[in-house]
């Protein structure tokens, strides 16, 4: 099992904030818009350093999306910032019509996604956002796993021409991605080679997949663990290459089972290589208020759940 240097727990939203400030220094066309959550989104350093390029729109997320779309006409590269629920569910019509359908170069950056938002409860813990955004034609969908990868992804999407949904979170999680690693949109990352089962994880569950891999190795199961940071476009080649070897797979994500990473992989495999598959995800439920770790356990998103899913899917192999 490959060992990864965990440099300590850091929140992924801070990776976004650091990268946004860096982008402001690198590219004068980068502008930022926020819906009354500057501190929570870690956009305050950008706002202080570039006050003429920061736009506080208040609690008016729909207006924010339309303003951002308009800014692209003048050559600006707008980064919008608010919670994932307000970045997608509240403003889906504006994103669909003014950004996706119109092909605008807007970067929709969303924090506080999933149940690890914690005590704010079901009204804020959106678990459908990846599904909503990946269904929009031309929309790139990215879900990062730690501070370093979020920072790298933020820098990378500024160079990408087209609309992007970048999803990250509030809690501190292990920071294990190399700081110097470049982020390649649409290219999955092989974290550990294995021959018995493929585990495809995204976001906060990537580290838990690595933990699961260690437990599985102790009982003689060698898991191939892959970080799928880009949900769309999906890395078909890496997925097919892995399951061609292991012949079974598990997907793991902090999202609804319907519409998420597992859904995308299942659609790919049913067309090209049907194989036994288990999904570690929230199954048709809203979230609730609670501590992040307690909610991960309640909704079956813990390390042990990935281990059990791997054992179950291996038992289904022919």
Tell me what you see in this structure.
This protein has 318 residues and is of the alpha/beta class. The protein contains twelve helices and 14 strands. It has helices spanning 12-26, 44-49, 61-73, 84-88, 92-100, 129-134, 147-159, 205-218, 236-246, 261-272, 292-298, 303-315, and strands at residues 9-11, 30-34, 54-56, 77-83, 107-111, 140-143, 164-167, 172-174, 189-192, 197-201, 223-227, 230-232, 249-256, 277-282. A seven-stranded mixed beta sheet has the order 3-2-4-5-7-6-12, with helices on both faces. A five-stranded mixed beta sheet has the order 9-11-10-13-14, sandwiched between helices. Strands 1-8 form a two-stranded antiparallel ribbon. α3 (61-73) runs parallel beside α5. The longest helix has 15 residues, at 12-26. The protein starts with 8 loop residues before the first strand and ends with a helix. The mean pLDDT is 96.
What is the H/E string?
Answer: EHEHEHEHHEHEHEEEEHEEHEHEHH
Compute the gyration radius: what is it? Answer: 19 Å
* Overall body shape: globular
Total number of distinct structural domains? 2
What characterizes the major β-sheet? Answer: 7 strands, mixed
- Total count of strands: 14
The average pLDDT score comes to 96
Low-confidence stretches: none
Number of discrete helical segments: 12
Helix proportion of residues, in percent? Answer: 25-40%
Query: What fold name goes in the CATH topology slot of the largest domain?
Result: Rossmann fold
User: What order do the strands of the largest sheet run in, or round the barrel if closed?
Assistant: 3-2-4-5-7-6-12
- CATH architecture assignment of the largest domain: 3-Layer(aba) Sandwich
Quickly give the structural class.
alpha/beta
